Amino acid sequence: MHCSLLLRALLLLAMSVAAFRAPQDVEIVTEFKQYFKQYKDTPTRVEAVLSLEGTDSPSVVTALLPVLKLTAEPEVVRAAIRVLAGFKTRPPVDLMVQELEGSKDEGLRMGLLEAMTQGKYDGVSGAVAKLLGEKSFQLRRRAVETLCASPEPDTGPLVLGLVKDSEPAVRCAALEGLARMHSELVVDAAIAALNDSIWQVRASAALALKSVRAKRSIGPLIERMKAEEGRLRVDYSEALTEITGRGFGQELEGWVKFWETFGDKFEIPTDADLARLRAKQQENKARYSPPGVTNFGGIETPSRSILFIIDVSGSMESMIVEKERFQDGGYPGYSRIEIVRTELVRTLERLESYVRFNVISFATDVNFWKKGLVPANVLNKSSAMDYARRLEAIGGNSKDDLASAGLVGSANLGAGKTNTYGALMAGLGAAGQGANDKEYAVEVD
How far, in Å, CA of 72 to CA of 444, rounded? Predict the structure, then answer.
């Protein structure tokens, strides 16, 4: 009797809360539709979108569908995706699935897929799988990511079919998605992908084999390591270390001898064995340090395709705080730009001839030393070092006197802002290009 009364009371309470929230939900969505178009600046538009967070209603989906098409305002689109990824009840998710199936707008479908990926929503795979055959590689790639975010029993075989897609970005997504699912299906596909003509696919294959440890991948990884140079040798050696527990690093001879000696009787180590072997590896780390690395300010890379992106905004004129760290570095001064400029010149001078490189400097604008990567021969290194020596902070503190005297143009303060996004996009070769461009198709690794 008491139990029945308690259940009735709880039901009435839930109904009361729902009845109270429903008008609130309708009100906030109505206000969003009324005011959003009136806001012209991006921060306010982002804030307006985020005001819908926590409102679990299909009306939120309807209100935000047009926002997903605002490709010129990626910050606003990201805010909409964040809201759409936060639903706790099923009705708004079901409406998203319905819209995904019914729309032909690529931007809208890309946004819905990203929201489903972030939200890890169940019961969406049927609609998402239909996009695996789309003409747009971006839709195929995003569909793979969504399927793998909340995998269902048939997800593995579906995604496996994309490891041979005509588009490298889709092949990468399929390999990495299967690896995140820890699917054994990825092993043979990744072994085959070690011979892909695109280096990014080979990197994804190594990552997959590192994640799903299998004995049959050891030999192919060692063979590919013989043929690779630069950063992919690191990827392969890290995969081999994770699979075997051995720590030969990039020392190819060590891996070859190990496999020739123990290959037939080798067994994949358990997690406990791996922990013990990793402790030993730390002791031997210096012994197997990678050969031919480039060092810039203490950052090492074995890459042979390097892009230096140097900040020359006004803040680089500021003095460093921990001067004692740099006292023995032979720097001409203690401003950030003096230290970075000196380190860059030293690094450029030491580049090996087989390295290809370029230098970008950026503040508000982005400037290239060369249009693309060039060999590190003596002529190019001399030219690059001269370019590096001329780098100066733009519109820094020393220009304040000019600005206070009204000579803002001479102070060049407007050009001294820190456009990090522009510099990184320029480095990827994607500056000023559309959303469908292949930003990954770069030689720099």
Answer: 27
